[in-house]
## 1
Amino acid sequence: MKENPEFKGKGGDFFVLYLKNILLTIVTFGIYKFWAKVETIKYLYQNTSVYNESFDYHGTGKEAFVGFVKGIFIIGGLGAVWSLINYALTAILGESGSIISVLLLYIGFISAQPLLILGSMRYHYSRTSWSQIRFGFKGNTKEFYFLFIKGAILTGLTFGIYAPWFFTNLSKFYSKSTHMGQRNFKFNGQGGDYFGIFVGGYLLTLFTFGIYSFWWKASMERYYWNNLEFGPIRFKSTISGGQVFLNDITVLAMIIFSLGLAFSWALIKTIKLSFDNLSLEGDPKLEEIVGSLDRDASSISDGVGEAAEALEQVGEMFA
Amino acid sequence: MLNNKYDTFEISCRYYNGINPLPLEGVLFFELMRVRIVFPNTPSDFEEFPLEGFGYDAIKNWRMNGEEVTFGLQEERPDCLMPVFKISRGQETEDIAERISSGRGHMSSLLHFDQKWYVKAFLLMVAIVVSAYFFLNSLDVVHPLVSLKVDSHVGDWVDERLEKEYQVLPSNGINRFLENYTKRLWPEGSPRVNEVKINIIDHQMVNAFALPNGSIYFSRGLLEQAQSPEEVLGVLAHEIAHVRLRHSIRQLIKSVGTILLVRTLIGGTIEEAELAEGLLEVSGGLLVLKYSRELENEADRMAIDQLKDAAIDLGGLADFFRRQYEESEHEKVLEKALWLSTHPSSLERSELFLLEAKSQNKVKKVNLEAEAANWIDFLAANGLKSNQELEADANVKEP
């Protein structure tokens, strides 16, 4: 049993949505941005279907905005605490106190990343559905921290050689933590296999002055999909380097010659390329799936991320 | 127009309860006043919705999406499993949508007008240009909402950093001379006039600038290059105008607003539009530079009025800008690409001040304080050398 997912989005409709989002963002002095993001995700999901049923996104602009406001307060509070620590350490230890407090800031910032990633994924999946059945994400925090720290240290110590194993371990973690109803995803990729693609792709891209990068991109996409399972369903991607090359060159030309106006069509074309080359194999046994909802998922992690990004942009403006 | 006002529309539907991914197939009868549902294979204990039907006002979240229409019987909540009906989109669904909106007595949405995408895109682009124009102009008028304390805090903050970066010369007769004239150039008795503080930086660049808290910085190079006290007082009048007109805070508001606007227009709400980031920085920067030149012109116009009121010769400032233009290669290059400059052309400014100086000849110019009447002597009395003296020193040192 073979099934091809379908993406029905149209460049013109997406362009209108984009313009509508810009207009409302300007007249609301930026506040509509949160609703605009949600509308964009909704458009992309609602136009994607498999087994004749479409995906959907149930998050709202209000949730995203509330998350952002909470994020601002959380970052503001943590910033105030750090300022006090910085003040105290500098008063006690002088310049070395100031260095210690900056180090503490970096450590705190890096330590918060896994938590924010998990929170954000949990919220995003809890608001995503296919055939009205919600997805969910139940990543174990301790396991993720261990993976994250181990991966970051080993990748650093091996000058990047460990990166393929880090990537496959993360993919395995993300997949097994993601579920629809009671059924989980599974990623079967092995670091060793990915290492070949990674090193081969890197070297060939280097020797061909970047031309092989399109083939490398295609092989990484195939590697990901061809190792993914959802219960009895197996995914298969047949995307080729030639297709990626042709698409990326066309898309770039479209954007350049239209002075950016054709980017909606470019984005839709790129998404369609991936979907046109993707198939699902196996009896899906949909009747076995029972939907559920993660009621505790919240938009705070996303909001903290948005708030941090906004503060970073403000910082850049004054730099 | 409702085509079939009294008709009952019979439409196949799929019902999704959020628990089972396989929908229930059924038929919806959209009658005049109510909607009935018939599921041929419904279990007898099926009680998820009123089988006897519901009014049009019970229909929530009517959403047309491509070839499908989706709706529910509850207000959408992100943290609840929401059962929905899906039907195929067609002429009937347009009529039903009208029935739903007329039942509620309002238009469903102003932006859901039924037009081809390119008509919508064109109208939206026009609306975006108009709103962007009003948005940019609104940035010019919001500064009165910002307390003057913000000007002081921002200025104090920059003051601290400047004092660390540059050596500020101890206050001397030149500072006192300029502070005395500040009161004549800002005569309305504003309390802010007392906040003005003149500083001289020990640096050879030819520059002067004002901070929002009233600190005005002159570089040693500017004072040494000046040929007369009128030139320096002209620069002072221009810097005072920056403080009075709150140009720093206005520039800050305009810069932030412009960058946000350009970011919205190009980056929009789609993170994939990263390619446009370079374009964003350039276009935002150019708009900000244009505004900076407008503020310089505004400060020049106020300086002209101030100098005229104080009866100080405007020819001084005309000479200053003429010399700036003639002695600087940088100025000549920038004149050909003014859109890249923060300031208007020195040549144009010189001509403007010269023109105003001619009209000023009709009034009697005030005598400057005796001690500063001869600028070169005044500089020497305060430990600085004039440009001519510096050049002479350099010639003597050359073998």
Note: Chain B touches chain A through 49 residues (CB under 8 Å).
## 2
Amino acid sequence: MSAKLILSMDGAVIKEYPLTKERTTIGRKAHNDIAIDNLAVSGEHAAVITILNDSFFEDLGSTNGSMVNGAPAQKHFLQNADVIEIGKYKLKYLNDQPTQVPSADFEKTMVLRAPPKPSPINLGENFNHTQTNIGVPIVKPEATTQFNTTAPKPEVKAATVATPAVPAAVIQILNGPNLGKELELNKNLTTLGKPGVQVAVLARRPHGFFITHVEGANFPLVNGASVGEQPQQLKDHDIIELAGVKMEFYFKS
Amino acid sequence: MNISEALEIVGQTNPGMVRSHNEDSISFDAQSGLIVLADGMGGYNAGEVASGIAVSVLSSEVKHRLENDEPNNIDTETGEEVGAALLRANVIKANLSIFNAAQSQPQYAGMGTTIVSGLFYDNRVVVAHVGDSRMYRLRGEVFETVTRDHSLLQEQIDSGIISKEMARLSKNKNLVTRAVGIEAGVEPEVHVHDVQVGDIYLFCSDGLNDMVEDDDIGETLKMLQGNLSLAATQLIEQANDNGGRDNVSVILVKVKGSFAAQTGWWAKLKSWFKN
């Protein structure tokens, strides 16, 4: 499924252009791939470079400039639903190839046929004269699809490293000089204790908070019982004891 | 300090949440200071075969040669240090083994693997890599990648058409520009780096760094450096909690002491007796 640009003016769609070429040109002159016959558009106004699943917009030094999503743009790495504006014309970029989402073909590591002498792709400063010596990507055949049929797989969340939807929680110190102090557990990992003496880590995971012993001769206690080597899930109002400090874990609600 | 006392090494590999096969292979050995990690690709079980060949060729050949040689000696054939020459030569050897197997067995056609390999010696580490498996280093507060991926995305970053920050939005992930076993020849990238006491090295497959942001990986290592195997477990857990779409492998190396090569008369005498 290739990406495309949809040309419109005043909300009326004029034409759709699939981005099948490495370089798609936009301008007033007829030889452009996307020719817009309007005096506000320069003869060679802009170009869109497409490298496999990514596209990049570049203004070619046009007289009246280009905007992307309402801001003047020279170069722009296009994301799905970005809107390029040239004069009164709008070009909407659509690419429904999801970023990092399991589509068996694309998830798999693939090898690009490397040039005999590995040389960087020359897309430097001036990608007017783009030369990609990327050959056809070698898609490793059937790899995941084969395996996928063997067993039902857990549903994968589409998010790129989304923050897990765990309710916010805090630790409140119950004794000693820091009595009453609260520590918000707003990171994936929070360590408690003194390095070299006794340290435990609290891990925030999609299904809750877990305490694990990190170092020290003694294990932390939860509600008076030693947690041992294994991670232990924390429940609302659990009491943790570590290096002589007592604290309470609870969910903020 | 001898090297097996100076280095603490842990390694874990996990199939992830989505795949039923683990195509990664790892090997590490504190005696020789050698670390090998490979991320295979190819249909059926060819990915495992490719990464397995790579790891076994490297680990057995390097260890074998080091029984009678020292990594900091000069290799007579190439004029470079034995450590660097060994890694380079054996990545090339692994490449040929995989390529030949793929040519002769139809079910292995097109298989290949990435590789990252490190050899610690004389307060240094020589690193050879091909593809997008990485080595990172935590030194003090600074956590950074040491290897540079052989991938389309990295080339785009290098040539300035896409910024590091924007790279995470790219839809061209997982496209490597070099791999072991795909063609008859391969050019491993080999560099030697100084090692300091307190450094932590992370070797990983892209199943980790595609799923967990570098900052989070670095934070985890800083927090859990007191318990290396827990750190490895936590990294894999984070990759899996974030979706675990690929196999995940991590090898952590903590430098606990100096391991300078012994060059004095005593070392010579000892090695004379050993032979």
Note: Residues 100-107, 114-162 of chain A have pLDDT under 50 and may be disordered.
## 3
Amino acid sequence: MASQEMEQLVRREYKEGFVTDIESDTVPPGLDESTIAFISNKKGEPQWMLEWRLKAYHQWLKMTSPSWAHLDYPPIDYQAISYYSAPKRDEDRPQSLDEVDPKLLETYEKLGIPLHERAALAGVAVDAVFDSVSVTTTFKEKLHEAGVIFCSISEAIRDYPELVRQYLGSVVPQGDNYFAALNSAVFTDGSFVFVPEGVTCPMELSTYFRINAANTGQFERTLIVCESRAQVSYLEGCTAPQRDENQLHAAVVELVALEDAYIKYSTVQNWYPGDEDGKGGIYNFVTKRGDCRGDRSRISWTQVETGSAITWKYPSCVLRGKDSIGEFYSVAVTNGRQQADTGTKMIHIGEGTRSSIISKGISAGRSNQSYRGLVKVGPRAKGARNFTQCDSLLIGDQCGAHTFPYQEIGNSTATVEHEATTSKIGEDQLFYCQSRGISEEDAVSMIVNGFCKDVFQELPMEFAVEAEALLNVTLEGAVG
Amino acid sequence: MNEDVQSDVQRFLDRLDERVAERIAAQGVEPSWIAARRQAGAARFEALGFPHRRIEEWKYTDVRSIARGDFRLATDADFSPATAARLTLPVEAHRLTFVDGVFAPGLSQLDDLPGGVQLLPLSRALDENHEAVGGPLGRLTGVEFSPFAALNTAFMEEGAVLRLAPGTVVEKPIILQFLSRAGEAPVMSHPRILLEMAGRSQATVIEHHVGEEAAANFTNLVEEIILDRGAILTHYKLQEAALADLHVASIHIEQARDSRYTSFNLNLGGGLVRNDLVAELNGQGAETNFNGLFYGQGRQHVDNHTLVNHNAPNTFSHENYKGILDDRAHGVFNGKVIVKRDSQKIEAEQSNANLLLSDRAEIDTKPELEIYADDVKCAHGATTGQLDEEAVFALRTRGIDQQTARGLLTLAFAGEVLEQVDLDAIAERVELAVAGKLPERFNLAGLVETAVALNEE
């Protein structure tokens, strides 16, 4: 046993890789109308929701999987995936931590994020998603006082149907793209946040996603609405247990910002990237889009992507309101055989809209990474302004870094700037550090962290610490 | 393929059948390799059809104005000598002239070619020794590159061949002049250019596309440039075609060790223009310089696609493209740099800057990098915007009015490319053309006065 532990340590395998043995209430693999009806029924959804899902399903059937990304993966068998999995005692959900299945709590312990402690210490409300059903929601009362709704999307459909109906699919329509259509048909959970007019959310909202049962894809649906002058900061973090078969994750996140509203959405993604041969990692196909509907509204995306075998993700902003602002800060780190195709879209529609894009990519091992972005300035977007900076760092001679920035400019008063560089870690920088007694690995870590500083400083404190640690773990073994 | 598209393709294929039949009647059967390539080109074109906007490479360029056209093939090279004299660049040079794709000996200047230089029309090169042409022709681009390259291969019969012996340095520039006529019916031409430069040879080639103002023809050019060790080529492509002319060109360059290729792709004319430049850097020390300038007005559509493949270590590429767009003009720039695995010590720089003068003008730009090696220095930048307000202010403090200042700065924007041009005749011609195209509100008269005054100072 001890030698086994030793070996694990030496091979520095994925720390969060383990499977909790909880009986799941899982439907057999396969997708047809009855699967969707089952999910909808299981969730106790109204008729309109089922119809909405079916409409998405029928659109999905007519679509084909996108092939334009710089990614290479075997075709996904959508009939081999089970679309619903929930912890068994669904009917009587725990109301407090004491009632939570001890095995679940143990899972969180193993992850190093004891829920109660963390929630209390950090003052963060946690809507913890274990597989597909929310098991516990804390700090709900405090939020309730402020008038902020923070619950799972299933609860929202049940308790606030008129709000959900008004906003769901208004940013990412059912037929937006292949994976969004699939998600719209089969999503099982996710978060719903509604911040009413003039309210600044009293705390940072956070959800920890976990993928557990074997062969279940996770289809999260998150909807965040900020009314006029409202503000919220939302944190999303992910870990997943290790397994052999590829797991599909196709989430949709929709943000709506009305006049003068501000939404800050931060993600740290650390899903299982697969073993040395790239086997078994998560496939992550995510559609994230924010709609700056009101004048002077602002949406800011910050992401740290270190996990997943395949990442296909383009958090975007539709800048509709006059003088609205879109921001995208991203650090993506790939190692082993990971592949990431990620970037953003900034669609300038309104007058005086501004956007900035800072993307830092680090490729190591045999990984491939692409930045793919679009800046579009419409004819009515007078005085629109964009600044884009995307830098790539290459570690090792077997990796790849690619940049595909699109600019479509249809307005003479727009100013759009794009800069990109690709290089390896400067040998002179490394030498400088080493001449001061810093080991090569530490020096690389320092340089990489410095390279990412512009993005890390956008992250909330707790995440910034986590992000730096994650970066170091991901790049372990990449040097020397 | 729907019926319309099919009938478009069929119309071009019918024209090809007619042409082949005529040629056999007049000149007898062609060498079998040419006939075979022609067939391969036609088959490929038939299979692909004209590109549509759902194809990534053609996302921003609609070629229906070509596909729906009914173009004949010219059979003579008659051209008014006075007009030709006016259009010809005032440069002392060796010159090959083509009128709607047909070789015009009377407008060419092939006397006193120095030793080691072979410059002749493709038809003559094929007559004299077709096997010598058959080897290199089509080596850099088969029929796969694009439907237009396939179409060119199916129709090819005329063009230019330039061969330089090792160490040959050609003092005078070589002009390849393509004249377009205004006729009763539009015509098409599919010129094919082959430049073979042996080790350490040096030359300047000026490719000049120009014509009568009312011309509305379709030119579909394919060019192959092979630079052996240490060869140096400066290549100007000055495209001043009539505003109704349709112009598609693909230029393929293969570079051996220590060779240097410098391109100036200057596009002022044409209603629909698409240029593809593809450089293969196959030997260490090879260097590619892509310079470009385009000015679009009215409803002009100018699309430049460039690709640099760094296939060997220690290779270098520099790219600088500038575009000015007015009225409803549409500009497209796509620059791609690919660094192959194990191609270490690469330096690649790419820059594209665009100036929009009207709210109805549009630019779509996409500078791409695909890098599979780690010891590289690659950078690209793209900007689109307006004139620097501080620069406008600086001129205004010197008593120059607002509009003149804007005109001067627009001219200076183009000047950043033109100052790299060594041939004064070309730099001046393009500068004057740009000045002439500037919107009237930029106070042209004042501009010229100011320019003269600045010159005198």
Note: The mean pLDDT of chain B is 92.
## 4
Amino acid sequence: MKKEDLPQEPGALSRLTRELCYVKNEEGKYETALSKGWDIKKEALDSAWVEVNDRVEEARKAVVSGEKSPIYYFMELNLMDLGVLSGYTGFFTFFVKRHLKPSVFKTLSDKKLEKYAQAFDISVSELKNFKG
Amino acid sequence: MNIDTKTEEFHHVHAAHCENGVTTALLRHHGLDFMTEPLAFGMGSGLFYIQVPFLTINNGPAISFRTMPGAIFKRTCRSLGVEVTRNKFRDPAKAQLFLDKKIKEGNPVGCQVGVFHLSYFPKEYRFHFNAHNLIVYGQEDNRYLISDPIMEEVTSLSPEELSRVRFAQGPLAPKGHIYFPEKVGVITDDLIRKGIVTGIKRNVRDMIGIPGNFAGVNGIRYTSNSVRKWRDKLGLKKAGLYLGQIVRMQEEIGTGGGGFRFLYGAFLEEAAAHLQDDRLIGISEEFTKSGDMWRASAIQMAGVYKGRLTEQQSFGEIADRLLEIRSVEKEAFLKLSKLNLGK
């Protein structure tokens, strides 16, 4: 990539920093240059977020309809899967999966709910009372 | 009382890739003034390609354009005879005590962190990615001074914030991973040249010597074959997301553009000067070409996830281009292997 071809199209990252890139200068030698971003990758990131938001909305509906417990919604909201949530709570994935069922969720102790609430950065009552 | 500890004159290094940047900055701090990001990347045999079959990450294909996390620092230090200390912890309190001790001794240290809770990152970038690296180089007003190589400027984190990202959970959980050069010996020009040659040879092995069809240049063919099938197999929407994931792995912050290929081109240019071997400049050009081709393929892939390209023909064209990239890279590594460097 030639230095003059380096895109300067600001994306989310440009709020924090410019990126260092390796480009060719006029003499055909490598040097570093700073880029504000590139629309091609900005759109890739945007489309990933559209997908995340769709999943969160699906999860919300599943809680409203009584198919899933609030843990499922907050798991999707925090971009987690069973493995990551298992890591943050210390529960084995087998149990996390069970806790996604509304019938099992109702029986969980406050101590267990506290672990989930911490993983999601919310309070136990927010978790308990989430209706969708 | 206010004890401000700062390691002796630490100089922030802005780099394309976090692990290169940490390696470069720490080694320079220990007096290795010749160290640059491309050199660290090349000596550490950083260039790679792999698509792990049957595995998905963040609901997309598991693709990487670089070698595994931690390898660049480890290999570069080892080839220069630099002794390294690395520790992991179960207990966050112990991890912090150890960190504080090192900083008080005047040692800047590398830390592996997860970005999901990394407070200064823009929200759009905060996925559960646990192989980010930064340097802690001091403490001031009860905040840790942070040199994050991908940033133009230094920053800081509270002890709670730092502890949280050092103990992020999920795949590649850092477990408080901390690392730094312990002892640096005498480094001769000869040792540097040897390190460069070893780095190149190992990279040749990784890219064209691994049997099987999903690692090295053959991995690019594996992806090409997958892309050809994605439209029918996954549907347009999901296929678009998968292509978007390839573009992000290839072009996002930390790659230097073109899936690290420009970075490798820059390394070969520097290697040519160190080894006084102009043949490497010609091969460097081929990696520049490959990087440009990766970027051109990203533009084509974007056509799909933006919904402009919807026909199977476009998927076929993308797949064909990946095959071309494979042959350019294979050719370049074959040439590298035939140079008989170091003989």
Note: Chain B has a mean pLDDT of 94.
